Amino acid sequence: MSRALGEAWAHLSHVPLRASASDRSECVNEVLAGETVIELDLGDKDWVQVRLPDGYEGWMDRRQLKPVTTLWQGMPIRLSTASIWVGVAGGWLPAGAVVRKHHDSWFLGEQQIETSDKPPAPYKGDMWDWCNTMLGVPYHWGGRCSWGLDCSGMTALAAALTGKVVPRDASHQFDCGLDIPTDQIRKDDVAFFGDDPKRPTHVGICNGEGQVVHASGEVRIDDLIGHHLIRQDNQVTSHKLIGIRRWS
């Protein structure tokens, strides 16, 4: 008999979360290794509808989840860089995955693992600084880890690494924090872009010196001049600024 719906955890590096119960459906987000979800409903075959801790919902293959069966212990650490581990599928975990240390042992969910790299520690830097370590990572719609990022996936992960809680999508991130005038932008302020002043379609992190790091084709840095984001490689306007927010 199949197990009942409940709390479950991802044991694979980065699992697609889809808009509907089909491998052909749009990948709208990712569930990263070591993250937990609440199972909401069963679909055909192996599909299950889940809710992430931030409230985001979607469909995923239930074979890519394991049930939570014990009380988890230890300090959770969200990885800020990809790293090598013994006991995980493929041998690597991406930035964004969550591991835990309990006494002298490391765990991915309920699975004991061992690090082959320098033991990870909680990230201590700024959002801008972390995003710079992702330069050149390819744009991936729905991506939320160091092996592929979309624009709001990058800003959401940067926020999580620095202790901030924001929604997954740019349209909801736009409602967070303080509205900042363009002449008062500082490092780690968040720039939103789009054609509709109330509906952003793109987002990036400012350095306070006229530059924005964002995921567009790849994670890159471009220049914010007035209300336009200008590509450094060809001086073409790529996005129109609609607002700046400061996430405290």
Describe the structure.
The longest helix has 11 residues. The chain has three helices and 22 strands. A six-stranded antiparallel beta sheet has the order 8-11-12-13-9-10, with no helix packed on it. A six-stranded antiparallel beta barrel has the order 17-18-19-20-21-22. The protein has two domains: 120 residues, SH3 Domains (SH3 type barrels), CATH 2.30.30; 120 residues, endopeptidase domain like (from Nostoc punctiforme) (endopeptidase fold (from Nostoc punctiforme)). Helix 1 packs across helix 2. With 248 residues, the chain is mainly β. The protein is globular and about 55 Å long.
Descriptive terms for the model:
248 residues; mainly beta; SH3 type barrels; endopeptidase fold (from Nostoc punctiforme); 2 domains; 6-stranded antiparallel beta sheet; 6-stranded antiparallel barrel; globular
- The CATH class of the largest domain turns out to be Mainly Beta
Number of helices: 3
Radius of gyration: 19 Å
The fraction of residues in strands falls at: 35-45%
> What is the terminal-to-terminal distance?
48 Å
Please give the largest β-sheet.
6 strands, antiparallel
What do the pLDDT scores average to? 96
- Globally, the shape reads globular
Pairing-aware structural class of the strands and helices?
A: mainly beta
Looking at the structure, the CATH topology of the largest domain is: SH3 type barrels
Low-confidence stretches: none
N-to-C order of helices and strands: EEEEEEEEEEEEEHEEHHEEEEEEE
Give the strand order, joined by hyphens, for the main sheet: 8-11-12-13-9-10
